């Protein structure tokens, strides 16, 4: 009887373990943010693309024109530089290297490429700093060249 009870309890524990939803890792969450950004960009929606960024005046974007602080100024710069879907082209990221720096912070290094048949392709490299704020992974610093 004791052996049967132990077997039943063991089977129940295994069943419960298998029934648990696997937790999403920070790396997977960050990749989801970047995939959502890519999809938004590729449909010409800069505002949706910016949802991957921290909506704060403390967001920092470093580009060829220098430093930009704040979510709204960063959005405004994107809108000026990419006024329509043709100028935006099709975005893809490559060579991603996601490195956790702590439980709620990670850096992502990679390459970006814009395929723009009419205007000419653009590409460069980036370093992003992601933080988990209020349960969401967002970009708090972006250095793109």
UniProtKB/TrEMBL annotation:
This is DUF4440 domain-containing protein. Pfam families: DUF4440 (PF14534). Gene3D superfamilies: 3.10.450.50. Keywords: Signal. Residues 1-19 form the signal peptide. It comes from Hymenobacter persicinus. Residues 30-139 form the DUF4440 domain. SUPFAM superfamilies: NTF2-like.
């Amino acid at each position: 009887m004791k052996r049967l009870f132990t077997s039943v309890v063991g089977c129940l524990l295994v069943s419960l373990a298998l029934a648990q939803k696997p937790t999403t890792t920070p790396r997977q969450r960050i990749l989801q943010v970047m995939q959502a950004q890519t999809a938004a960009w590729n449909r010409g929606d800069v505002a949706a693309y910016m949802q991957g960024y921290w909506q704060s005046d403390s967001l920092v974007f470093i580009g060829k024109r220098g430093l930009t602080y704040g979510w709204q100024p960063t959005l405004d710069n994107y809108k000026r530089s990419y006024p329509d879907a043709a100028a935006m082209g099709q975005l893809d990221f490559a060579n991603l290297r996601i490195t956790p720096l702590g439980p709620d912070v990670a850096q992502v290094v990679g390459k970006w490429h814009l395929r723009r048949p009419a205007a000419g392709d653009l590409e460069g490299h980036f370093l992003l700093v992601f933080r988990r704020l209020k349960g969401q992974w967002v970009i708090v610093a972006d250095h793109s060249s």
